Amino acid sequence: MLQGKTIAFLVAPEGIEQVELTEPWRAVEQAGGTPRLISTQHGKAQAFNHFDKADAFDVDATVDEVSVDDFDGLVLPGGVANPDTLRMHENAVRFTRGFFDAGKPVAAICHAPWTLIEAGVVGDRAVTSWPSLKTDLRNAGASWADQEVVVCANGPNKLITSRKPDDLKAFCQAAIDAFGGN
Questions:
Q1: What are phi and psi of 51, to 5 degrees?
Q2: Half-sphere exposure of 35 (CA within 13 A, CB side)
Q3: Are 99 and 93 a contacting pair, CB within 8 Å?
Q4: Catalytic residues
Q5: DSSP code of 105?
Q6: In angstroms, rounded to a whole number, what is the distance separating the alpha carbons of residues 45 and 31?
Q7: How far apart are CA 73 and CA 129, in angstroms?
Q8: Cβ–Cβ contacts within 10 Å for residue 66, how many?
Q9: Boundaries of each DJ-1/PfpI domain copy (predicted)?
Q10: What does the pLDDT look like over 55-70, one tens digit per residue?
Q11: SS3 category, 62
Q12: Cα Rg of the chain (Å, integer)
């Protein structure tokens, strides 16, 4: 379904919720796509299982070295520190916004919509997230719902959002569908 497609996974150097990186990554690979780990720094990205250190993953390229044109879609994993760090990095925010400008699908889970808020791309969009972001997203113009997955096509691209790791099965399926053009 994703043969010949490359999907960017944008993460900060640390603070990624591991399962929100590894499960969508595996789904992209199983669908025949090529995932690439993009970060703000070279080296390894440190993942966490909630607040406990987990595995570290090799970064393929930095956000300064790639272009939206190199990818067919974007995944933004959660974790509290990960999107909080990304939203403070100008090039990470610009890279994220570029997927919306190019009409390419974006999938964001848990706290990841913080980066979307900073990119200014959630106005008039239907979304979900970890519940603590509800007010932030509404203040940014989004319509927030407490649902397992929300797929919004009301904009220049498909935006897929989910609340938490328990939603990963639905999140991964919706993301693969969107990346595949469905």
A1: -105, 0
A2: 23
A3: no
A4: 111
A5: -
A6: 24
A7: 19
A8: 18
A9: 5-176
A10: 999 999 999 999 999 9
A11: strand
A12: 14
Beta strands 73-76 and 106-109 are parallel
Q: What is the pLDDT of residue 182?
A: 77
What pTM was computed for the model?
0.98
**What end-to-end distance do the CA atoms of the chain give, in Å?**
10
Inter-residue contact 57 to 79 (CB < 8 Å): no
Quickly state the pLDDT bin for 156 (edges 50, 70, 90): very high
Q: Which residue has the tokens 């407490």?
A: 146
Task: Provide the CB-side half-sphere exposure for 160 (13 A, CA).
Answer: 26
Query: Can you say whether residue 6 is alpha, beta or left, with left for phi > 0 and alpha for psi between -120 and 50 degrees?
Result: beta
Degrees (nearest 5) of the Cα angle 59, 65, 69? Answer: 105
Joined together, the tokens standing for residue 40 give 């703000």
What are φ and ψ of residue 88, in 5° steps? Answer: -95, -5
**Three-state secondary structure call for residue 3:** coil
- Tell me how far apart the alpha carbons of residues 165 and 155 are, in angstroms, rounded to a whole number: 26
10 Å Cβ neighbour count for 170? Answer: 17
